[in-house]
Amino acid sequence: MTGRKTSTRIGDAERAAAQHALQEHLNAGRLQVNEYADRCASAANATTASELAALFEDLPAPRPKLPGMSDSALRAILRNRVLVAAAVLVLAGLALVIGLSGRSDPLPPPWTAAGPTPPAVPPTSPVTAPTASATSVPATPTDRAALPGNVTVRRTSQPNAITLRPSYGVDLDDNTSPNWGVKSGPIGSSAGSDSDIVSDSYGDIVDFTGDYAVVTGAPEYATCATETAYTSGGIERGSLRPDENICLRTSEDRYALVTIISTSEQAIQFRATVWDPPVPS
């Protein structure tokens, strides 16, 4: 091996911490929704501390604490990137000034009396929220008006993504862990006994501990509560499609809605919303 220093590799805890910090910046208005979604996706796929650090180079605190990288080292990296960016802007400005100084004729105005008529300025229209697409964040299925009086949202990952790698499972009833209790262990093992969704060891099958149903209705509680085609078992990864909605009953008998974001041999990404109280047996 050469003496070149490489960045320390990170795990799910660091990825979740980065997504949590990005959520705070979204709430503070420092990030637009599409910027937040892109950075969260990058955080979910990051493998080294430097990749996560790059997501915060233009943001103040909070930032995640990263292994092998002290606060002073992180500040130095971010400061150097800002200085490089500033130097690029200065050089670009000098090049523009030098280019203009070589002109013998003054710059013409954008519109002259003999020139074309300026185009009419269209009336200002109100800015509308972006519709769901591959890069935008779909609406959160937590409309309070659509919920019965005794039903509340227990937890939602919106607009973050839950990343499920082969042989890992997620506990949708978990209400405390930043990564929704994602851990390794197939259904039936001690590690996977409380998991509601598990990806098999090859990442080819998504197994459900409780009943599930692929639905076409609105992504809301009523769709899951009135669905009658629940079944048991699992779904082949190749059958899952982006933006597909799946209702399921968790191991603690709560209704949950899962929206698929992307699938690959390396991981399945989805968003989830879980409602309280548990469904009466």
Please explain how this structure is put together.
The structure is a single chain. The protein is α+β, with helices and mostly antiparallel strands and 281 residues long. It folds into 2 domains: 7-101, no CATH class; 147-276, no CATH class. Helices cover 26% and strands 20% of the residues. It is built from 5 helices and 10 strands; from the N terminus they run ααααββββββαββββ. The protein has helices spanning 12-27, 33-45, 49-54, 71-101, 221-226, and strands spanning 152-156, 162-164, 168-170, 183-184, 197-199, 205-215, 231-236, 245-249, 255-263, 268-276. Strands 1, 2, 3, 4, 5, 6, 7, 8, 9 and 10 form a 10-stranded antiparallel beta sheet that branches. Helix 1 (12-27) runs antiparallel to helix 2 (33-45). The longest helix has 31 residues, at 71-101. The termini are far apart. Mean pLDDT is 76; it is low at 1-5 and 103-140.
Terminal-residue CA separation? 61 Å
Report mean pLDDT, rounded to a whole number. Answer: 76
**Computed Rg:** 25 Å
Q: Quickly give the structural class.
A: alpha+beta
Portion of residues within helices: 25-40%
Q: How many individual domains?
A: 2
- Number of beta-strand segments: 10
Tally of separate helices: 5
- Beta-strand residue percentage: 15-25%
Major sheet characteristics: 10 strands, antiparallel
* Coarse morphology: globular
Low-confidence stretches: 1-5, 103-140
N-to-C SSE string, H for helix and E for strand: HHHHEEEEEEHEEEE
Distinctive features:
disordered N terminus, 281 residues, 2 domains, 26% helix, globular, ten-stranded antiparallel beta sheet, 5 helices, alpha+beta
